[in-house]
Amino acid sequence: MKPLKTSVMLLASAAAIAAFAGAAQAGENSYPPLAPLGDPPIPADNPMTDAKVELGKMLFWDPRLGGDASTACVTCHEPAQGWAFGDSLSRGYPGTVHWRNSQSVINSAYLGQLFWAGAAKSLEAQAPSAAKGAVAGNGENDVMETRLAFIPEYRRRFNEVFGTQWPLISDAWRAIATFERTLIQNDTPLDRYLRGDETALSDDQKAGMELFNGKAGCIQCHNGPLASDENYYNLGVPPAERWEEDGLAQVTFRYELYAKGVTQEMYRQLKDDPGLYFRTKEPGDMGKFRTPPLRYTLYTAPYMHNGAFWDLEEVVQFYNQGGGENEFTDGPMAATKTDLLKPLGLSDEEVSQLVAFLEAFSGDEIQVEAPTLPPYGPLPGE
Questions:
Q1: Whole-number Å distance between alpha carbons of 226 and 347
Q2: For residue 315, with 0-12 CB atoms within 10 Å meaning exposed, 13-18 middle and 19 or more buried, which class applies?
């Protein structure tokens, strides 16, 4: 009996080693698995109420929260365009154009780092950064707050929600953030499959999921419930084509270099977005951007920080070739391209299967009826 016991132990050990090797190859031991998306976190200092959500919805649509009362949150985050903007670079304040692609606000409630380089840590911090950004809303606190005071309906609603006699601009951001926390999608085909519904994905999508977790290596960065590790990488995404042919886009890019602080030499030489470097000033962060979530991406083309790719197949083919080359992949200002990217060797069929699986991260389009905005009126006692 002793030799039999030893043989069984050896077989069990061999099976365990083989299982471990297979799991490691698929990234299962290193990366959080994809998971259903639960309810979004609600900060203790900004609780949800129906009245606050409704106020935030109105403010999300109201261009008076901006510089010349022409640019609202919805201007760059249109429901019909994936709650983003369907061009390579987002809209800008009148007379400008933005320098990055507009990200969807769907499921932004789950993110701990907002904007492409993580410049805001909460929706409450993101809203004023956008509304006051020079090439975005270009608003000033005192002007926006005064406009709100001259709108009787807002005075009533701010008093109801926040208990203030006059609308405060800081409370406006809290209301907008509360509305954005209702813009979630956690009932996608992938969510249903991960909760046990085997019929929620097609055979091609299931094959694509196997590629996602294995051969294609997507799980290395697109993991967890959001399908984002919220880390930063230089993928070799080529520079924005708009900068070669659109003078206004080039001027905006140069302005951002100046405003966010680069050396004189870099200001004159850079021809691509430094990304995370703007925040850290570490040369090794040149060209790095936060991993975007994959949820709702069916509706948010074009993709990447500068809208370089116009459909999901283009994105997959980019990764299939091992990423690309940009100003920050070699040369004196290089932040070496992530070594996670290598040519994948996906066949045309496998590319199609992976694209089909990526589509499973999105459910039906989220549509919201636009609110009727209240008019200006007299101040109390006038």
A1: 27
A2: buried
Q: Are 343 and 322 in contact (CB under 8 A)?
A: yes
How high does pLDDT run on average in the chain?
90
CA dist 187 → 190, 192, 312, 361, 365 (Å)? 8, 6, 21, 9, 12
pLDDT tens-place string over residues 32-50: 999 999 999 999 999 999 9
Q: Cα(215)–Cα(208) distance, rounded to whole angstroms?
A: 10
- And the tokens for 319? 């990764």
Structural domains in the chain, CATH included, are 50-180 (1.10.760.10), 189-359 (1.10.760.10)
> Could you tell me which residues come within 8 angstroms of residue 382 by beta carbon, excluding any fewer than 6 positions away?
none
CA distance 70 to 96: 13
Maximum separation of any 2 CA atoms in the chain, in Å: 101
User: What does the block give as tokens for 360?
Assistant: 């499973």
* Distance between CA atoms of residues 311 and 298, nearest Å: 9
Q: Is 157 strand, coil or helix?
A: helix
- Hey, what are 265's tokens? 């030499």
Q: Which helix (H) or strand (E) covers residue 290, if one does? A: strand 289-290
Nearest to 235 by CA among 149, 110, 321, 163: 321
Give the residue from 214, 206, 213, 212 showing the smallest Cα distance to 189.
Answer: 206
4 pLDDT band, cuts 50/70/90, is very low
* Calpha distance 301→308 (Å, rounded): 10
Burial of 107 (0-12, 13-18, 19+ CB in 10 A): buried
Question: Cβ contacts of residue 19 below 8 Å, gap of 6+?
Answer: none
**Per the structure block, which two tokens stand in for 337?**
């391209």
Give residue-wise pLDDT tens across range 361-370.
999 999 999 9
Which among 185, 68, 191, 181 is positioned nearest to 127, based on CA atoms? 181
pTM of the predicted protein model:
0.90
* 273's tokens: 């977005």
Joined tokens for residue 232: 């930063």
Phi first, then psi: give them for residue 229, nearest 5 degrees: -85, -5
pLDDT in tens, 135-165: 999 999 999 999 999 999 999 999 999 999 9
